[in-house]
Amino acid sequence: MSAQPLTVRSVTPPECRSCNSSVPVDEHFCPNCSRIQSLGRHGDYFAFLGLPRKLVLDAQELDRRFRDLSRKVHPDFYYNAPPAERLASLERSSYLNDAYRALKQPVSRIEHLLTIEGLPLGKSEEGAAKVPPGLLEEVFALNEELDEIRDLRESGTDSATLAARLATARQPIEAKRDEHERALAEASEQWDRQGDAPADARRATLESLRQLLLERNYITNLLAGIEREATHG
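Above: the chain's sequence. Below: its structure in token form.
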């Protein structure tokens, strides 16, 4: 069974504070009186920007929607408005910036999709010490190489030789990172094609995306560790 999205939606549409009309949850302005609405729903950046819940987005379309909405909700336009509308403007403008930053980059876009589809990456998992099964071989080889490089450093080996060894150690990890980038792109395209697919198929794609992202984060940490070795001493 597919996990339920985390986006909270009211059973009854919220009411406009100005005219008491019902307002659809994803509307920024009241259809009846055109007043800006308080931010009564958090969680779905795609819906906030009026975009489909897809991972391959048109960057120009995303930029256009951001600019258009920013002009409409920016606090500068509500300087003399009633306090409730000024607050609504601040909330929506801040939330818009968060949404834009999250959806602009492919990786953070995937992270957000996983969150609203009920498969979030926990903070403890992002830099987890446990080696993902798919990276065991590379991690074992890297650790051996780094141990040898540290021994060479302690024995007084020149910096040029150490730098060359570190560059060699970095190559298979960078290759693995590139492999994951391609796999993430393919899985993202697969998700976008699955709009009418069975729930279990969509769930499997989400779980694949999640595992790939966990491994990618681990690879990023490995590369950061190599950089630390490069600047050691």
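Residues 125-230 form one domain.
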